Amino acid sequence: MAGIAHPYEDTTTAAAVDAAPPAPVKPRKRVSFSDLVDTWKVREAGPEAERRYYERRADFESTHGEITDAYICEDGPMAIVLTAVPPSRFEKLFLFRKERVQLYTETERLVRAHPEVAHTLHRAEVQYVSVKQALRGLSQRLLVNWLFVWNRDVMISAATVEGVAPPAFEPQEIRRLERELDLISASYEQAASREAQIVYLGGMLMGVLGLCALAVPVGLLLRGTEVPVDLTTFFGCVIAGALGALISVVTRMSADKFHVRHEVGRGYVQRVAAFRPFIGGIFGVLVYLALAGDVVTGITVPPVTDEPKRFAFFLVFAFAAGFSERMVKEVLRSTSGDGERKQASAPEATSPAPRAADATGVHRVPDA
Prior knowledge:
This protein has helices spanning 2-5, 7-19, 33-41, 47-64, 89-93, 108-113, 118-134, 137-158, 171-223, 231-254, 266-292, 307-323, 325-333, 338-345; strands at residues 66-72, 79-85, 100-106. Helices cover 63% and strands 6% of the residues. A hairpin with a 6-residue loop joins β1 (66-72) and β2 (79-85). Residues 1-20 and 338-363 have low confidence and may be disordered.
């Protein structure tokens, strides 16, 4: 009713508020999780302590993300929280990123009171770092939540009940915690292997784009020289060799014959994968030059007059060169003549050294 009875006063007041300069925004402070736990312990000391706790919590969430789940022991600094950082607009639209979850723990008091679980807690922290570095999306969130529940259960078991401290962890209880960590580790290995293959494919696609961008200036440089190279065939062989390398990796992944070392990190896997299309493109151009220059014997190249057939001939060999490095070796081996080829095809006097096998008797070497 006041707004209806005195509309002029309310309008002038609103205008005065709009004309007033905006209040300065208080900069957020960087608050660690230990600081947040310390203020939480004394939050019931009075209104000022409670206000300080909520300020510290707001500062913590502005930096580390919103707290979605938490456990803080009532009788001491023993706590764990789970936060979620939403993706930016660019990450959501173009990179299809989801919210990033993070885990923060305060276990100093727990380790001091129960040193028998110190090694197990350290193993859980190492496992969390591996999950954060190697995984993204749903797999990361599921395993981080699993580690949160595992740490929370350990803290609940170590918390005092009605002022009485619990006894030390029994050996069978520690073995149970270790077995659960083994399950988490096994799930991580499976998810990390799949994630590393996806990262490897993404790095190869980036390498194909980089190769296409690099092939243009190289082709223009060749055009300005007296080298008798057909640019259309040159570009076609570069792209065909890179695509052959890409299809080779995809085929072996689908047959579960391509394995990547996920423990080296996502950045290393991407950089190694980006060089694979360059190798395939170089092999494709190498085979093209060897065939066009009559360096290879025993292979009939279509004549220059039949341009479409000649172009398809070189592209097929370039794709095969990128698909299989063994094919390049066979083609280049034919340059030494029939006599040396016969000598190379003769059986060796000594048998090759046996390959090392793993515990299962199967030799498995990661491809990258």
